[in-house]
Design a protein that fits this description.
Length: 274
């Protein structure tokens, strides 16, 4: 397998960039584990007797949205300092230095499974900021990282031409590449640690990879709804001058089959991968 260079840079999660008027790269993700299901809305769903965990990457720069639902009749905890994005064998913890909100008080449906978050906790819990408390039959929602991939570095010669129907039913020109897990330009893992008591922590890992890349001038709001709103799809926008992407340097890591840059946005501080 031909190796390429992926440049890693961790920066603040909120980037101020001008509106894009150029080329869009839409990435579709798949998962390696057979016990993780891709449900109808594109989210990745794992379930056992005590917990279900869902991952969604919908939007610009693949915002990693993680939902954890406690199926038990006793409280559960998520330790985000022991949960991480894994890229090229390097762990980037989901924990932030700021207290984050946990989403409770609404229902969510995955296929035939509906989890009603009717239990609302209004008290104060003396927990570290990286620990989420999950009451019984309740879920928490966490987003701490994003992935921005510079797929414009992939040669046009690798693409195939095709037509795709837009939201207005017009046919638009696109280019696409299909990948397998062994030649994908982006592969990463998500590692989640939960427990009822710290001595009995359980860890769950899912491994994701880009399985299709679409290159087009079409903006996200012009795509069909069943495509633009899927949890297994994210996009990257590249402006004509290709500026404003990096304000700090990057360093190289050997990984993958194609040379692309990966930018990881974190909630606070600046980190460099060496």
């Amino acid at each position: 397998m031909k190796k390429g260079i992926i440049n890693i840079l961790l920066v603040a999660s909120i980037l101020i960039t001008p509106s894009c008027t150029a080329t869009y790269f839409y990435s579709t993700l798949n998962v390696e584990e057979p016990n993780v299901e891709k449900v109808d809305n594109g989210d990745f769903f794992f379930e056992n007797d005590s917990v279900w965990i869902a991952h969604s990457f919908k939007g610009e720069d693949a915002p990693i949205l993680i939902s954890v639902y406690n199926k038990l009749d006793v409280p559960m905890y998520v330790d985000w300092s022991k949960s991480a994005l894994i890229l090229d064998g390097i762990a980037y913890p989901y924990a932030t230095s700021k207290a984050h909100q946990s989403g409770v008080g609404e229902s969510v449906t995955y296929g035939d499974i509906t989890a009603y978050t009717q239990t609302i906790y209004n008290g104060t819990i003396d927990l570290p900021k990286h620990i989420d408390f999950i009451p019984p039959k309740t879920r928490v929602v966490h987003q701490g990282l994003r992935l921005a991939a510079k797929f414009d570095e992939i040669s046009d010669s690798k693409y195939q031409k095709a037509k795709m129907q837009s939201e207005s039913l017009q046919m638009i020109d696109v280019k696409y590449i299909n990948f397998e897990h062994h030649n994908t330009p982006l592969r990463f893992g998500s590692y989640i640690t939960v427990y009822n008591t710290p001595q009995k922590a359980q860890a769950y890992r899912s491994n994701f990879y880009v399985t299709r890349l679409i290159k087009t001038k079409t903006q996200p709001d012009k795509l069909p709804n069943d495509m633009a709103n899927r949890g297994d799809m994210f996009y990257q926008c590249v402006r004509p001058d290709n500026t404003g992407w990096y304000v700090l340097g990057t360093v190289g890591v050997v990984v993958g089959a194609t040379a692309v840059d990966i930018l990881i946005h974190k909630d606070d501080d600046y980190y460099y991968h060496h």
